Every structure is written in structure tokens, then in C-alpha cells.
Amino acid sequence: MEALVLMKVYPFEKFLVNGFPVVEWVETPNNGKQKRHRSLQQFESYLGLSRRIEQSGDKESVKWFNSRLMRSHFYIWYVTRICPQPPRRLDTEIGKKLGNKWDTMKTKKKAKVKDGIIRLCFYATRLLFNELKHNIVF
Fold first, then answer.
1. Would the pTM count as exceeding 0.85?
2. Among candidate residues 135, 138, 125, the one with its CA nearest the CA of residue 49
3. Residues 97-131, buried b or exposed e (16+ Cβ, 10 A)?
4. What is the radius of gyration, based on Cα positions, of the chain?
5. Is 44 in contact with 9 (CB distance < 8 Å)?
6. Is the link from the previous residue into 87 a cis peptide, with omega within 30 of 0?
7. Rounded distance between C-alpha atoms, residue 76 and residue 72, angstroms
8. DSSP conformational letter for 66
9. What is the number of structural domains in the chain?
10. Phi-psi region of 18 (alpha: psi -120 to 50; beta: other; left: phi over 0)
11. What domain range is 45 assigned to?
12. pLDDT tens sequence across 28-78
């Protein structure tokens, strides 16, 4: 999984402009401002986590874009390495963060299982983006 992810996002500098992530501030309808992490969005898209929600009347559907392979591998990695209880759970700092978040989400029943795993995949990609940003960029 690590090799597949690194192969997909190499070189990391393609997500940066002049060595920094692209962040935009967009005005909202109620005269506020909202932060948009364009570099992070592009990074998530490369890893298969870009989606568009389409609504028509009462129906709502999610259309996924880019790499189905990456998305399925993230899902399988999460189910096999993060969802199990601690003896079989990934025993790293990030594994513990993701595992704790999964446990709290499960106990509070915030989301259905599949939706919760997809949410945590987005969280994992944000953590990965920040780790790569701090360790690779000088």
C-alpha cells in the first residue's frame, strides 16, 4: 500500500506552487470567507477520493472520480489495518490516531460503517499530505 501511494503522488512538488500548498479564500453568500485547500483537494483526487454529489428531486447520488484502484486499496487497508481491535490494529502514531477516531465514531454512531470508513480515508489522506509536506518540502 505504501509503495502504491508513493508511486501515485510522486513527485510531491506537483501539488505545490513555489514550495507551498495552494490555499484560497472564497467568499460565501452570507458575506463570510471559506478556506479552500486546493493542493489537498488535488492530492485527494490523485488518491481516488474526489467526488461530486448529484441531487435530483428526492434522489442524491455520489459520483467518484479518478483512481478506483486507489480508493479500493484505501478501503481494504482501512478495514484490515485500522478497524480491528488493538492487538491486530496498526501500531504506529497515525494508526493510533485513526483507530481512536474510528472507535469514537463507532461508539457515538455518527455514521454508517461504509460512510465512516470513507470519512476516515479522507482524514488519513489529510494526515499523509501534512506529513509529506513537512518532511519533503524544505
1. no
2. 125
3. ebbebbeebeeeeeeeeeebbbebbeebbeebbee
4. 17
5. no
6. no
7. 6
8. S
9. 1
10. left
11. 1-136
12. 888 889 998 999 989 988 888 888 888 888 888 888 888 888 888 888 888
